[in-house]
Each structure stands twice: as C-alpha cells, then as structure tokens.
Amino acid sequence: MSSIKKQIFIVDDDESVCRALNMLLITYGFNVMTFHTAEDFFNVVTKDTLGCLILDLHLPGLDGWGTQRRLNELGSKLPIVMISADKNEGLKERILKTGAAGFLQKPFHDNELMALINQGFESV
Amino acid sequence: MGNNYKVKTAKQKPKLELKLRKPNIKKRRLSGGKPLKTGKPPDKRILSKAEQLLLRGFVSDLSNVRDDLGEKVRRQTDELKLKSGQLRHGADRQQRSDKRIQKQTDELKLKSGQLRHGAVRQLKSDEHIQILTQAIKSMTNGMFLIDVRKPNFLVVFSNAAFQTMTGYTERELLGRGYFSLRGAKADSGVVAEIKRTIRQGTHFRGEMLGFKRAGQQYWFQLRLAPVCSASGAITHYVGIQTDVTLMWQRDFEIKEQREELLHVTRVGKLAEFVSSLAHEISQPLTAILSYTNAAQRLLADREPQIREILQYINNDDIRATEVIRRLRSLLKRGEPEIKPLDMNALVKDTVVLMTTDATIRNTVLKIKFDARLPLINGDRIQLQQVLLNLISNSFDAMECGPEDRQILINTARRDRDTIAVTVKDTGCGIPTPNMPKLFSRFFTSKSDGLGMGLSISRSIVEGHGGRLDGTNNPGRGATFFFTLPIKQKPAP
Predict the structure, then answer these.
(1) Closest by CA position to B480, among listed B447, B457, B449
(2) Residue B31 has pLDDT above 90, yes or no
(3) Which pLDDT score, from 0 to 100, does residue B39 have?
(4) In B139-244, which residue ranges form alpha helices assigned H by DSSP?
(5) In 3-state terms, what secondary structure has residue B240?
(6) Which of B284, B293, B321 sits opposite A110 (nearest CB)?
(7) Which CATH number is associated with domain A7-123?
C-alpha cells in the first residue's frame, strides 16, 4: 500500500451502513469520507477530485442515477461502485451500462467490495 | 153503416110529427111562404059518416103507426146507446190493451238490449280469456298450476316455457305429481319447505337447483301462490319458475374475476411489502456484516475466541440475508404480459367488478369515455389493479359522508402520444400535509391500511412508461389520474 492514502467517498442515507463501511475501509488503509445525501457530497467534490465513490442507488432527493449523471456532466472521472438493497432483474446490467465500475447488492462481503474498488482505481 | 141508418131514422121522427100536426106549413113552404088559395076549407059536416069513420080510422092508424115508429125509434135509440156504450167500452179496452202491448214491447226491447249487451260481454270475456291464456302460454317464465286437493299435488296446467325448462312435454306433465319433476337429486330440505308452505296455504319464493328430465342441472327462481275457489278454499297453487342459470353464471364469473383480481392485488401488496421489508432489513444486515468484517480485520491474529464469535455473527448475517432473498423470489411479481389494450373496455370491465361494492356503499359510478381512444400496450391485470386501487380509495374517501357519492371515471386522449384515465370523486379530499407522502411506501391515512396501494400503482404505471398523480378538486373531493403511452404503429 502506498504512503498516500487513497480517497474513498461513501454516499448512503443509512447512518449505520456509512459508519460500518467507513470502519471497514479504514482497516484497508483508505481515507474515507461519508455523506447521507448526494447534495452534501457535491458540496465537496469537484471535476478533478480523485478517489472512488461508493454510491447507494436509493437516496432521498438526488438518487444514484442522478448523481452519476451529474458527475458525468461535471466531467468527473471518479469511479463508482453502486450499491443497493433492491434486487431487480437486469438492474446490474443497467448500472454497468451507465459506466459504473461495479454493482453490489447489500449485504456484501468485504472481499467483494475490495475487488470492485480496486477495479475502479485501476480503470482511472 | 148501421150507425148511419140509425141516425137517419132518429131525424125522421120530428119531421113526421111536424107533418102530422102542421100540414099547412109544408104547403106554405112549397108556395114560397104565401098560403095557397085552395078555396074553402072542407066542412066537417059535409063529410059523410063513412068518410068520417074512414078518416077516424085513418087517424087512428096513423097514431098507431106513429106510436109504433116512436117505440121503434126508442128501441133503436136504446140499442144505439148500448152499442155506443159497448163501443166506448171496447175502445177503452183497446186502449188498455195497446198500453199493455206497448209495455210488453218496451220490456222486450229492454230484454233484447240486455241480451245483446250480455252477448257482447260474453264475447269480450271469451276474447279476454283467450288473450290471457295466450299470454300465459307465451310467457318466457315457466308457469304451472297444481291441484293441491289431490295427493302428490298433480300438475293440471303448464305453459311452453315450463315444458322447455323441465324437459317434459305437456302430455307428460298433465296429471304428474309436481315433486316427481324435481329429480332424485333435488334438495330434500327445499322440497319439504315447499310442501310445508302449501299445507300452510302461504306464499313461497326461493332460488334452487333443478334437474331436467335428461338430468342436466339448472338454477331457477320459484314463486308459488295459492289459488282460491269461489268459496274461498285453496284448491290450487300457481307457480312461476324463472331460469336464472345464465344470470348465476354471469354473477359467478364476475365474482371469480373480482376474486382473482383481489388475489393478484393482495399478492402484489404482499410482494411489495416483502420487498420493502427486505430493503429495510438489508441495511442493518449490511452494516452488521461490514462491522464484523472490520473487527475481524482489526483483531488480525489476536483474540481467537472473539474472532470465532465474529465469524458466527457473520454466518448468521448471511443466513438472514438468504431467508430474505428466498422470500423475495417467492413473492416476486410476475413478468408483465404486455398486449395491445383498449382502456375503455378495461375501465368498463373493472367498473362491472366494482358495481356490488358501489351499491353497498351507496355510491354512483359514472363512466365517460373518449370513443376514439387509441390502443395502448400494457398488462391487463396490472392496469386493472391500478384502477381498482384508485376506485377503492375513492370509496374510502367518501366514508366521511357526502350526500351525493359519485365517482366519475374518464378516459381521454391527452396529446399525440399519450392517453389519460381520470378517477374523480366527491369525497373528503386529501389533507394538505399528506400530499407529499401520498405515494410513499407504508404511508396510509386508513386505520387498516398497509400504505402500499398508491405506491404499487405508481410503480405499475411507471413500469408502463406513464405517470400517476393526484390532486384535490377545486370544490370537493380529489382526482387521481394516470397517463399511458399510445401503442405505436409499426414503422412501414
């Protein structure tokens, strides 16, 4: 692991999920920032922000789809790992089509998450 | 003739007397009033004794003749009087007779008039009976008459509809016991009840299963009423039998469709409920799994017992997740069956299913169709679910008790690409604070509601590429509407 910690952003409206993922990813040596709404996230992110975004699909206000669209509009290259508690036929395919680095259905194991984060960083 | 003669004779008498007593007068009249110069009057003394005797005899004869004549005249006068009296009497009798004849004639005329009137009445009555008989024969309801004085209640009359309904001919029915027509499989309880009704002389009305001669079963409505003789005793029972098999079948089909739709709706609600529950439970399960993963990593090679415990927590988290996944796949909403649909027909069919509910709730269901509504592509059951949900909500909204409970369902073309279906009610409307939460899962204003209906409806409509929304009316009540895209014609 390099001396400069890689940045992870987590946007999920569930406080406990945010806290647990934060603690888990810290154990993997990441620098983690958590947000409960996409609007809060856009207050700190810019076009050139580096890192990886773990984004919940269902959010109050601007949802996962809208957030992804807005990041594209900004010109951001931030890799996105979309997570959702919903299980729909074809949802994963739809998400991957929009250019996300990966999709995980909640709940998931840490190794599944890490594989997608690494894949995301590699894609940039 | 005789009368004339007698009158003439009566006039002769004074003339004769005049001639005898005043002979000169005649002479004077003959000579123009002046006395005739006849010379000297004859001197009695001049007459000889013979002449005097002759004269005396002549006078005496004349006197006798005069007396005879007078007697004759009197007799004839009396006879005439008698005859005249008889005649007068006869005339009176004749008059009385004439009056009697007149009276008899009048009576005859009256009798004749009465007879004619009676005959006309008889004719009319015959015609009336004929029409009534014909009407009974042509009735589409089965009609029969049973003689209740005879054992086994024999059939004494039946019309064509009854014969068709039972499968027996008129000849077979006549004199046959009514209850033997009901078939061996007939409900013995109903038969006993009908017999009891007849014994008590009261009316019967009921719906029951019947069996035709060939054994086919049919449902019919039976009405029985007693028929009394002139003395007031019940001699017969008249029965009217209506075949309600088709009506029952239709009711049954409607009920079945309704049940199916309600079942689909219930399953849909349950699926949505489980899906929501799974979503909510997945969040803490995600957190728990991440916490234990983090703890395990933090402990690394230390505290083997605690790490073992963390592994057990991990395993149970995965087990709970699996339970939810299985439940979710079990209640997964079926794949929509998309077909070209006529929304007018779909609204009409759904309204038929809700008619009983509307009647119970004293609500009028009105439909206003756009006759030129284009077809849409959709899943019939899912869209019926949406309509059913909106109409049910309107029913509930009118529980606040407006006087005119009305629901108007309207179909219309919205623009080039979409149609709209509107459900407008006269209920209590939507309280303003509830407006933003209307379509949220688990939000409900009903004490027994799940808060799934509008949420599912919106997801169905959105799945069809449309939009569902609701608003309060300017006056009273609320209006919900959904749009659906028109079926596109295949490109040439």
Answers:
(1) B457
(2) no
(3) 45
(4) 160-166, 170-173, 188-200
(5) strand
(6) B293
(7) 3.40.50.2300
**Rounded to an integer, what distance in angstroms lies between the CA atom of residue B144 and that of residue B163?**
9
Give the closest residue to A49 by CA, choosing from A25, A21, A80. Answer: A80
- Residue B279: which of A19, A26, A85 has the nearest Cβ? A85
Contacts of A24 (CB under 8 A, 6+ apart): A110, A113, B290, B291, B293, B294, B297
Question: Would you call A16 and B298 a contact, using CB atoms and an 8 Å cutoff?
Answer: no
Single-letter amino acid, residue B425:
D
Q: Which residues of chain B have a CB within 8 Å of the CB of A91?
A: none
Q: Which residue has the tokens 């076009």?
A: A47
The CA distance from A47 to the nearest CA of chain B, in Å, is 30
In whole angstroms, give the CA distance from residue A82 to residue A64: 8
End-to-end CA distance of chain A: 17
State the Cα–Cα distance between residues B281 and B287, nearest whole angstrom: 10
As given in the structure block, the two tokens for residue A116 are 């997608």
Q: What is the C-alpha separation between A8 and A107, in angstroms, rounded?
A: 19
pLDDT tens, residue by residue, A48-65: 999 999 999 989 889 999
CB A85 to CB B283 under 8 A? yes
Whether residue A24 and residue B284 make contact (CB cut-off 8 A), yes or no, is no
Nearest residue, CB atoms, A17 vs list B278, B287, B328: B287
**pLDDT tens, A60-99?**
889 999 999 999 999 999 999 999 987 777 788 888 888 8
Whether residues A86 and B286 touch (CB distance < 8 A) is answered with no
